[in-house]
Design brief:
The complex is a heterodimer of chains A (about 150) and B (about 150). Chain A has four helices and six strands; from the N terminus they run αααββαββββ. With about 150 residues, chain A is of the alpha+beta class. The longest helix of chain A is centred in the first third of the chain and has 21 residues. In chain B, strand 5 and strand 6 form a beta hairpin. With about 150 residues, chain B is α+β, with helices and mostly antiparallel strands. Helices cover about 40% and strands about 45% of the residues of chain B. A six-stranded mixed β-sheet of chain B has the order 2-1-6-5-4-3. In chain B, helix 1 packs antiparallel against helix 2. Chain B contains three helices and six strands. Classes of the chains: A alpha+beta (about 150), B alpha+beta (about 150). Chains A and B meet through strand 1, strand 4, strand 5 and strand 6 of A and strand 1, strand 3, strand 4, strand 5 and strand 6 of B.
Chain lengths: ~150, ~150
């Protein structure tokens, strides 16, 4: 499972440089407003997962969420929330993140590095993720998320 | 009575249209997924160009990223016995529709030859489709090898 806990440090940097500047331009640029909102939601996701805050995670995901982990396994929303409730924390740092807005749809892509303790040794893996957000009932919800290991 | 019937009809009509639209959207997106596989196998650049958005986010199964232009160029550059040597056949497909957005996910079987060795692996994919200017176009695609 690509736990997103501890992606906070980099996300705070991104929000500080992009998100906090965006509201001043939001009236002129609706896409910019949506972009900063989506970045804030990705940040909220990280926080909620780090603190096993299942209630917050529940509000971020659509009920029909499609979640594909880095090993190709498929999680429904219920399975993902169950995992988040009990998952042990691994260090995951987002190295880059970008948002594309298509009206009421947003595509978030980025690269993460996950470090975990396996068989008495530290293992580090890099991967690329794609999250799809949809504006539904006056709120953005994540409808799909997928991670793929970077081989080369 | 007649007014009540008319109101009921007006209430039900959008629901049936909406339901039909969602069903049509699912069928359309499923057909486009099939078209994508066929076009890839045949090296049909024109068909691929029509179903992929110019700003598509394309993540390959090794985590590499390509723009639409790079992807089309790679298909075009591959000789007939190279790119098309990779056989892609869908094993499952599910489509969720959210108005003008559709999420197509499933598992495909990829067979080919790499460094002289034959391989066959299952990959899980998620494609995001957007209804734009009267057509469905793919705006994001990602594939992950299934390890377990």
């Amino acid at each position: 499972m690509r736990s997103r806990g501890c992606r906070l440090a980099v996300c705070i940097f991104i929000l500080g440089t992009i998100g906090l500047l965006a509201p001043a331009r939001a009236q002129d640029n609706p896409d910019g407003s949506a972009r900063s909102k989506i970045l804030a939601l990705e940040h909220a996701w990280n926080q909620a997962e780090a603190f096993h805050d299942v209630k917050s995670l529940d509000s971020l995901f659509d009920n029909a969420l499609v979640y594909v982990d880095a090993d190709g396994s498929l999680f429904t929303k219920a399975a993902f929330l169950e995992h988040a409730r009990s998952a042990h924390l691994q260090q995951v740092v987002t190295q880059s993140m970008s948002v594309q807005i298509h009206g009421d749809t947003a595509i978030v892509t980025g690269v993460y590095q996950a470090t975990s303790f396996e068989n008495a040794r530290l293992v580090t893996r890099r991967g690329r993720f794609v999250d799809t957000w949809v504006y539904k009932n006056s709120t953005w919800v994540c409808v799909a998320a997928q991670a793929t290991p970077i081989v080369h | 009575m007649r007014l009540a019937g008319t109101l009921l009809l007006l209430y039900l009509l959008p629901c049936s249209v909406l339901a039909q639209s969602e069903s049509e959207a699912k069928s359309k997106v499923a057909a486009l997924e099939q078209l994508w596989n066929q076009a890839y196998k045949a090296g049909d650049i024109k068909a691929l160009d029509s179903i992929l958005d110019d700003a598509i986010v394309l993540i390959n199964d090794d985590g590499s990223v390509q723009t639409k232009a790079e992807f089309l160029a790679s298909v075009k550059a591959a000789p007939p016995a190279s790119a098309q040597q990779q056989q892609v056949s869908p094993e499952s497909l599910t489509v969720h529709v959210y108005g003008a957005v559709a999420i197509a996910s499933g598992v495909m079987r990829v067979k080919g030859t790499e460094h002289g060795k034959a391989y066959s692996r299952a990959e899980r994919f998620v494609d995001t489709w957007l209804y734009k200017a009267g057509h469905w176009v793919c705006i994001a695609t990602n594939a992950t090898p299934v390890l377990h």
